[in-house]
Amino acid sequence: MSATSENNKRIAKNMLFLYMRMLLIMGVTLYTSRVVLQVLGVEDFGIYNVVGGVVSIMAFFISSLSNVSQRYMNIGLGKQDIREVEYAFRQSFTLMCLLSAILLLLGETLGLWFVYNKLVIPPDRTVAALWVYQFSLISVLSAINQVPLMGSIVAHERMNMYAYLGLFEACARLLIVYFLKVFGTFDSLILYGMLTALVSFITWLLYAIYCIRVFSECKLRFYWDHSLVKDMSRFIGQNLFGCFAWSAGIQGTNILLNLFFGPAINAARAISVQVSAVVTRFTENIMTAVKPQIIKSYASGDREYMIVLIVKSSKYAYFLAALFAIPVMMEIEFLLKVWLGQVPEHTVAFTRLVLCESLIGVFIPPLWIAANATGRIKNNQVYGRMFTLAILPISYLLLKVQQDPMIPFFVAVVANIGYWLYCLYDIHVQIRLDIRYYLKEVVMPGLFLSLILCSVGLIQSLMIPEDTFSRFLLVFASMLIVGVCVVYRLLSEGERVVLQGYIQRVCTKLKK
């Protein structure tokens, strides 16, 4: 069997584990979000999210370090050099510890001052907010030190373990909800922050135990190689600006909304982000499965296979995301009423705009991974991320003119389109990706599917104007059935043959 066929099978297997993980976490998140909102209330729910956002801004470098860690370990594995993989892991671990100390110092000085003096928090909830801030710091510190461990798991493509830890996280979330209900006399906001921090720490511990036992290169020992640090620092430096711009655009918007409109608006935004996170997970699962192969194919000099992976992962990710996001956008008002019962003001409009932004964002990760593989990420992460960084100042200026909470969401959609197009041009220059081929194979099928889904949903909504459960089922089912049929027709002949063979194998196993 060819190496390409083996790689494709490995990608498919890893995607299966990741989607099982996603469905489990998604189901638990939908349930726990409803209960947490009911227990905390709209105001406390908003406080938790905006305070956590302050910590997230200070920890903007987590994504950058994760990408660097995975890249160097993937390259070492691509060369089959275990010693290089070990050095990359230990150097990443050392850098994480150093940055954790810096974050702790900043968090207990500048961050604490900002939460106490600048955020709009009711006076009677200030103490609870400060406790939540401390617990959020613990959660983020656990996430930082988890980076090289997760990088090792992804580099080795052990997605089954990734799925099992997702099972633990899902069960832990359910336990948190149970404790919130049982200990009703305790301050629910403080308790929620404490339990979330505890789960984050235990998750890090489980990752550490697994990696140390399974991977020989995973040794939690300090290591410093000046030449390696210099090489990684160049890569990290360019990555850092991109991560800062992303964090400022996302979490900065959250803080901006708090300053102009108060914590209730933060609750509405938090709910919309949770819904859009499902779309993001569709993309993340495909990208997590395909990322090692893209980097390894570049390291081995197989540019053609690299381009095939970029195009196909972009197309499949958008198809899967659109089949979920567009029906949800059409019926979001009914879904939120059923899901939450109490729907904060502006949540419906926020969710539709955030889903639009997420659908556009689906096209970006494969292009970013390609730049990550080549190591030439300056254009992508510095110049391209100017679009994302611009969200904050432009939103601030427009809000000064007119105080409409929708403004930052419209700005984010436009910025995402600009960033995607810039990334596409950058990869075209770097690896000679044919833009017309990309538009034909990725964008046009995606637009066609979106138009069909929107048309079917709109026609049925006009035919059945009553907002009932039967209408929801009819509209949702019709859009999914038509969407799946359209996706099938949009696949190439070879892709349809592979899909038919996979379905036949699954049916054969089920009959046994």
UniProtKB/TrEMBL annotation:
| InterPro entries membership | Poly_Biosynth_Transport (IPR050833)
Identify the keywords attached in UniProt to this record, alphabetized.
Cell membrane, Membrane, Transmembrane, Transmembrane helix
Q: Can you quote a single GO CC term? A: plasma membrane
Q: Which domain of life is it from?
A: Bacteria
Question: Membrane topology for this entry?
Answer: Multi-pass membrane protein
Q: Would I find Hydrolase among this entry's keywords?
A: no
Q: What is its main location?
A: membrane
Query: Where does it live in the cell?
Result: Cell membrane
**Which PANTHER family does the record cross-reference, listed alphabetically?**
PSMA PROTEIN, PST FAMILY PREDICTED COLANIC ACID TRANSPORTER
Protein known as = Lipopolysaccharide biosynthesis protein
Give the species this sequence originates from. Parabacteroides distasonis
